[in-house]
Amino acid sequence: MKSKFEMKDVELAYRKLKSYVYYDNFSLLLRQQIAEFESSPNFEECLSKLVEFLNDPVNKRNYFEALLNEINYYVAPKKFSREPFNYGDNIISNNFTESSYLLEKVNYFFKGPVELHIISILWILKEGYVLHKDYHKDNYAYYLELNSESGNVVDGLRLFKPYFDQYQRWRDKGVDLAKNIVAEDTDVVVLSLDIKEYYYNINYHPDLQEEIHTRIVNDTGDKGTLFTQMIFDINDAYQKVCPKNSKGIMPIGILSSGILANWYLKDFDKKIKEELSPAYYGRYVDDILIVLSNTKISKTFNNVQFNSSLEAFLHKFFVERKIFDTKKTEKKIVHQSRNRKCIEIQKEITYQFISDKNIEIQKDKIILYSFESKESQAVLDMFKKKIEQHSSAFWFLPNENDINDDFDESVYELTYTDTVNKLRSVTDIKQSKYGASIFLAKRIKISLLSENKKDDKTTEQILTFFKGIVNLEFSNLWEKVLTYFVIVDDKNAFWKFFKETIIAIDCIKSSDKPKVKSSDLKKTKKYLGEYLMNCCAMATALNPNFVNLNWWEDRCSRFRFNWFNPNFYKEVYVLKKEYITSNLLRNSFVVVPLLNYLKLTNETDVNLVKYDYLRTLNPAFNKEGFQYDDKKLKYAPRFIYLHEFNSIDFLKELIFQAKQDHLEMFENLEQKIYHKSFDTFFKVNYEYRNTFYESKNGNEVANYSENLKKYYFKINEGYRSCDQKLGYNTLEIPQSKKIEDDLKIAVANTKVKATNIAQSLFETPNTDKERRKDFIDLLNGAEKVKADILILPEVSTPYRWLPVLADQARRKQRAIIAGLEHIRINNVCYNLLATILPMEHNGIKDVVINFRLKNHYSPGEKKLIKDRGKIAPKLSRSLYNLFIWRGIYFSNYNCYELADINHRALFKSKVDVLFASEYNQDVNYFSNIVETVSRDVHCYFVQVNSSDFGDSRITKPSKTEAKDILRLKGGENSIVLLGKIDIKKLREFQKTRISGQDTKIFKNTPPDFDHSNPENR
């Protein structure tokens, strides 16, 4: 008899849980639990036991009870305040360090075995998704990814739509609508509400639980509600241990709560929409945005009944319409400084949902925006502009010169009462968490482009900013700070920040208003200590040898605080290993894509932020270590792109062949590497993660794989000469939208320095600040002009920057042709031309990367290499590529290859455009070649050379005075220039035989030109 539940069900739920936590920046301690769980030697056994329980829940109830008994809670800080100043009134200070920091509010988070979290995911997949249908129209948080046909949660890793996208949608939709209404000469009011302590006031009483059981059964039929009852059992067990004094508590920190909490408010949502008929109503967890059209705030109100226009407005629209009731209370406010103390009695109104008094609106968080159509709309415009600036913070790569200059402006916000030119107008200094986060992210991104380049100014800015109460309030940025110091290899700064944070935690004390229990205070300090440990482990997992066990022991032994874990130094070291084993470290910071998925990371401490690790391995390396770790691939927490497999498979093969002194990959194996990469890509992202493939046999799965591959690329032999010594392969990218208008080509005008070439050949590639800036300027320049293709000169780009090129090409869907600097392995110096071709399939953007070894090294290049005892590889056969991308047929040459008349004639009538990446001083000779090839092959020709040599150009087969579309030389700064070529116009000309060709447009096609080729294109 077939079991009701199988291992694949539990594995699917576990993967979704792990993936959610991987992307969530607020679940670091759950991340720790999952890392420990997966790294455990009995990981598979734990999953099997869960399957056994699910198939016999009555007889194995003890298993579930044991899990429930492990439920506990974390106490995390919610709000800090500072001790009253001793300065007196009207004093503003930039000193945020005190002898103590007051803990005013705490939050309680669910702590329970990973198995219970898996059960919560299974509930969502099997039963809970039904509830989503009742509230999804107005809700933006915990928005399930549902299959449009079946209505079930989609296969794969996705569970909820990304929270950052959903938050932006929730906010932007309301703002955009308000803006449109005002533009139509109609007044509008935007109301922002916040529900007070939402999760602590959700009372799922027995009648409501029964309603949920019935709702699910009605939708799913006879499948029952096994998981629904388990979820309520989990919630009940948590409510018994959670110290929060409330009739109903929804656990914060388990994903089932997101669904239940949303469903709980469905009647609240419905009531507001029915009574107010708003132009827009949207809710994100407990934050509510309402847009009311043709509404304005009255400037006059009954000041006997109401304290403000806001109260009068809320009474008219919410109280009179039976949405809210009001509860009036008196609140004692104590104003105190070290010099004096006064007490103020305030009358306060609380708004409660009329159908459920547990749902209260926080009065101090109600904000009302009134926009009258006849007045200035500057506020809405400025707010919208600010949102767009934040949304595009990483669309361009960070400008290195501006990052440090922008630090103060980004992280400090000054409040003015008058003109900004008056110092006395400054009334407050606040810190921006968003600004600090963006600064750190940009700094990390830049630092990954080079090897351990410390920046004293950046270090000083970070250590000065993260002090005292600011450090405590911005605890979710600790990991970024520590990661930055690991990447730049700054142990001293790492220790200073760590010590400052420990001291700040110890300075926390309980506030008297309201009083935080001493037990909660101690648990908060322990929580922050454990959180800091996780931040340290996550950061050092990127470079396990950054600090050793003795380093940790020596420093941790200096702390004698009663809350500080005496085993911190041991546990952080173990946890670091567990993050590596489970691959829950920050994959995006690994400089060699997928290096962390190789077996060698299990056997030895690998510096994942050091590019040269693989290339400089001892020739007697262990080949087994270069294989993928199947478990890491099976439980990978993210979608792994094809280009990542593409890149590392190529690099591994290059290393193997360099050690064995042969070039078979470039001569025979090119197609095999693409297929090998795709097979692994399919296995990881589809076969492992989709239950659909479980029911298929091997042949059926292979067919699905082959069909999907055809969407990504098609590669085959295009042409071989009679002696097989010369030819080309055809590489087509089918899923690339055809270019309907002119092809926009960005030509990079940048200087390739001879010193950089020598460094890449004989030392370590130069990746200094000046060069990074030039590189980033070129990539940003291509984006500013919205180019379709960017072409860079020969040997202009260090190989370690290839992942940045690939990511830019993928995100912007821009093809990039780049001459890579020589990569030296086992004294063999490879000159590679990379062609990066983007595509998109089912909303997933990816790229295919082609690496081609230079067929003809120039005499000067060979001399430079051989004079230093290195090897310039010589191919026994020369293969080029005919690329078909976005309907454009093109190929490319690497400088001196153009000197071979047979090679440059390969693509006669077969291409629309040829590209050449060059580092070439003989400008006149190559200028003649360009003009000759353009006419003989009859195509557009794009040549890019080092700017000091010049003659970078886009030319066409036309008469002399009209042939150059773009031509340039010189300049100190690196820029791109955009040229446009009309492919359609050229093809139409070529379809016409010579007798009918108009030579005012293009030169005649050459003899024996195959007119059928442009006709077929």
TrEMBL record:
Keywords: Nucleotidyltransferase, RNA-directed DNA polymerase, Transferase. Residues 1008-1017 have a biased composition (Basic and acidic residues). Residues 997-1017 are annotated as: Disordered. It comes from Tenacibaculum skagerrakense. It comes from the Bacteria. This is Reverse transcriptase (RNA-dependent DNA polymerase). InterPro entries: C-N_Hydrolase_sf. GO terms for molecular function: RNA-directed DNA polymerase activity. The keyword Nucleotidyltransferase applies.
